[in-house]
Structure formats: C-alpha cells, structure tokens
Design brief:
There is one protein chain. This protein has helices at about 1-20, 25-45, 70-85, 85-90, 110-120, 140-160, 170-175, 185-200, 225, 245-255, 265-270, 275-295, 300-315, 325-345, 375-395, 405-420, 435-460, 460-475, 480-485, 490-499, and strands spanning about 100-105, 125-130, 165-170, 210-215, 230-235, 350, 360-365, 475-480. By secondary structure, the protein is an alpha/beta fold.
C-alpha cells in the first residue's frame, strides 16, 4: 500500500510539472484514471497479484446433508473434523492437531463438495484453489504464492472472526508431484517444499488453526513427503456411489424439478451403475432439457432414459446408413441381445440401430446389483456377450466387419483380467514375468472357447435371431419387454444345453 501511495505522489508531481511547462495534461490525467479503475477492478476480481489474494474464495452454504451417497466418506471426514471443533479438549489431552486431509477418488464423485461441506461443518473460513495456480516458469513465484495462500487464510479467518480456516487444493498432484522428475529447473520442487514447510507448522499461528484439504484422482503421483503423518494425516476415499447412494443423489438433483408419476428414481439408480455424482446431475439436467424441448410440464421416464443414453454415448447423430449397413448393424445388435438374455434372462433394456456418439447401434443392459468381486464364469459370460455381435454377423451374413473392433478390445481386456487375477489355467502369475507369447496364447484360448459356445448358441436360435433382426430393421429400436415376447422359449436353458 505504501508503494502505491509513493507512485501516485510521483505521478501527481510529474503532471503538475508538465502543466507548469505548458503541456496539456488532460489526456495523461484521463489515461491515468482509466488505468487506476482497470487496476482496482482486476485486483478485486483476483486476476492480478495471483497468490496475494485467494483466487477462489467464497461463502458457501453447502452442508453434508446436501451431499447424496458417500455415507462412509462423509463419516470419515466428519470424524477427522471433530479435532477442529474440540480444540480445547484436544490440547488438554496432548493430541496433535490434524494438518491435512487428502480426498482421493475418481473425477466427479464430490470431492470439492466434501471440502465445502467441511468448512460449513466446522464454521471455518474457506479458500479454494487448484494445483496449477502455483506452477510458473519463474523460480520462486510458486513458493511465494503458497506463502500468500496461508497468509490469506489466516487473514480471512481473523476478518470473519473465526478460529479456523480450511484451504482446499484441487488437483493436488500438479503441485505435490514427486520431486526430481523436472530436471530443467527446480520451480516445481521449490513450490512443493514451501507447501511442506507451511504444513509442518514452522510458521505456526496459535490463534488460527489451518487445515489443508487436498483432492486428487492420482494419489500415486504424489510425493511421499506429503503423505507422511504430520502433513496429510488422513486419507478419505471418495468412491463411486452404490445403488442406494445414486438414488440419494438423484433425489437431491430432482428436488427442484417436476417429475411425472411414471418416474421411479430407484430404477434409474439401478440403470446408472458406474455413474459418478457429476454424471447423475447431468442425467437429471439433460432429462429436464428434453422435457422443455418437447413443451412438457413434467419430466417423464422416457426423458430420463434418453438422458442416460446421451450421457453414456453422446448425442444422436444424423448418419444415413445404407440398407446393407443398417441390416448388418441390426444383426450385430441382435446377437448381443440374444446372448445377454441367455446369460442373464431379463437383462436387455433396449436395443436400437440409431447412431449415437461413436456407436452405429447399441444394446443397453439392465445392470445387475453392484458387484465388486467377479468369478471366472461371470467374466467369461461378459466376453461371450461382447463376441456375439461379430459371430451373429458371420452366421447370418457370412463375414464379420470392423464394427466389432471395440468389442474385441474389451474382450481381450477382460481375458487379461482373468489371467492376472489368477483365474486362468496358468494359475497365479506375475504380470512382469509372463512371456508375451504365453499371454497371447492364453488370451486366444479364453476367447476361442467362448466363440465356440456363442456360435453353437446362436446357430441353435437362428430362427429367433432372424425374428429380432427383422423387427429391429422395421422399428429401429426394441424395448426389452418386446424383445422377450419374440423368444417364446427359455434362452438360458438353450445356453446351458450348448455348453
């Protein structure tokens, strides 16, 4: 502030001197006023002097009750935050205060929301930033920004008359990556070193307790010094939500949306296995957009179905397939559908030959209950479903096409999972020591065995296959209930017979 006053005084003296010499100082005066306005505007927005002001500082009203699912993660975090709420008792018992909490998990699972809720729960001042804000090509800049970040946190807590502050650093792996990998200059290492010093409490302020919450989906990239006790003392895993968690998240994101009577959020939660909280928010939003486009007052079940497909595969494309291409796509999808029904009756939700994203057609399955462990039989069944599209093309049309490329890649991936999990005939193996030719041979054997089963199964149900293909070509899409009406037989029994 003192430097600014000196500069303004010097400029004023210069303008007076120029005026005394007879120069027209009005243009200079106007330009100076404009520069001052621009400077203070940018400074207020935090776009200059990065690090001297918090880039993302805001008052948030988000609580843990506003976060759906993640019950275990919320409980873990709340237990860690109790240390900030019971400071007197903690100090009386000689307990060291927590310096940092690391939130790890896939993108979109709610790590940022958890940090905001933590500040509300502890009534702390809150400053948020990201790892990339501290990295510069100029040596020393990043370290200065780290010092300013902690200083701003203390100042903000004092200004708001609070006893604690929370600093949230998103994408922590950018700032806290392993040291020594950047040989060109030491800016990355200096910045991380400063963060380590600040978290060690060498600049400790007894009046204000500061907790650093870091978030990353690449914890393996973090420097070991960050993860030792005394820095990030707690690691909380924020995983993808289970079915119950997905339903809670959908309920939160549809609170302000008018839903039709046919919408069952439990079924939608079941159909969105593997979706993160961000995905589910997008599903609810896309469903509302679709309802608005159709001029509907309520969001219907069909809007959610369309939204799920859009989030999974992308927007519908205006690709005009030839009759031959459309028929081949129908054959391919019919093969997937029949095999899926044989492996797990009632599993097909929808199949279509309409293009969406990178897919010329697709078969959507009703997910099973959330599984975290898989048997060899389950994985082999997944391989057989993937192979069924190409084999159906071979049986009906006499040849395969490039449309099965992604199916084969996924089948190989699952086959390797069988091998490296110790479920193959090789037994327990070490991935690095397994010869490539033996790996390829074992993968081929797994896939070829499933090809034989799929081929026998589809040959036996060739008439049903034609029935599904013709229906799909005629209507372009078939719902699961309509598909099962075409069978008139037990497909699972047929599969067991050919095995």
């Amino acid at each position: 502030m003192k430097n600014i006053e000196i500069a303004l005084g010097f400029i004023a003296a210069l303008l007076i001197f120029l005026f005394y010499l007879g120069y027209d100082v009005l243009p200079f005066l106007f330009l100076g006023i404009l520069c001052c306005i621009l400077y203070f505007f940018l400074d207020k927005k935090g776009l200059i002097k990065i690090g001297e002001r918090e880039r993302y500082s805001f008052n948030n009203k988000i609580g843990f009750e506003d976060i759906g699912g993640l019950a275990i993660a919320k409980k873990e975090l709340q237990e860690a935050l109790e240390f900030m709420l019971r400071v007197d008792e903690v100090r009386r018992l000689g307990i060291r205060l927590l310096k940092g909490i690391l939130l790890t998990g896939p993108p979109g699972t709610g790590k940022t929301l958890m940090a905001k809720a933590a500040s509300t729960y502890t009534n702390s001042a809150f400053i948020a930033t990201s790892g990339s804000e501290f990295i510069e090509m100029y040596a020393g800049v990043g370290a200065q920004r780290v010092r300013n970040l902690f200083k701003n946190a203390r100042d903000k807590a004092i200004k708001e008359k609070k006893k604690s502050a929370i600093i949230f650093i998103d994408e922590l792996e950018v700032l806290g990556g392993k040291r020594g990998k950047n040989s060109s200059h030491l800016e990355y290492d200096q910045t991380l070193n400063q963060l380590l010093v600040e978290m060690d409490g060498l600049r400790n302020d007894t009046d204000i307790s500061i907790l650093v919450i870091g978030a990353t989906n690449r914890a393996d990239l973090l420097d070991d010094a960050l993860l030792r006790p005394g820095r990030f003392d707690r690691q909380v895993k924020v995983e993808l939500p289970d079915k119950q968690g997905r339903q809670q998240i959908l309920e939160l994101h549809t609170r302000n949306k008018p839903l039709a009577s046919d919408v069952d959020l439990e079924i939608i939660a079941q159909d969105t296995f593997g979706f993160s909280g961000a995905h589910l928010e997008n599903v609810a939003n896309e469903a509302a957009i679709l309802a608005m486009r159709e001029g509907k007052k309520y969001i219907c079940e069909k809007h959610f179905r369309e939204a799920i497909d859009k989030v999974m595969l992308g927007e519908k494309l205006d690709k005009k397939l030839t009759k031959k291409e459309k028929y081949r796509v129908a054959v391919h999808e019919a093969g997937h559908a029949l095999m899926s029904e044989g492996v797990r009756p009632g599993s097909v939700s929808y199949l279509t030959v309409s293009s969406r994203g990178n897919a010329l057609g697709y078969t959507r399955q009703i997910p099973e209950k959330d599984f975290y462990l898989y048997t060899r039989k389950y994985l082999e069944n997944q391989i057989s479903i993937l192979l069924a599209g190409a084999i159906a093309e071979e049986i009906i049309l006499g040849s395969r096409s490039t449309g099965a490329g992604n199916d084969f890649k996924e089948a190989v991936k699952i086959s390797k999972h069988i091998i490296f999990s110790g479920l193959s005939d090789l037994g327990i193996v070490v991935e690095d020591n397994l010869p490539k030719n033996l790996l390829n041979e074992t993968v081929n054997n797994i896939i070829q065995n499933q090809e034989k089963i799929v081929s026998k199964y589809l040959e036996r149900n060739k008439e049903i296959l034609y029935r599904v293909i013709n229906k799909l070509v005629d209507k372009e899409n078939i719902k699961g209930e309509e598909l099962r009406l075409l069978f008139k037989t037990d497909m699972a029994q047929h599969l067991e017979e050919v095995r």
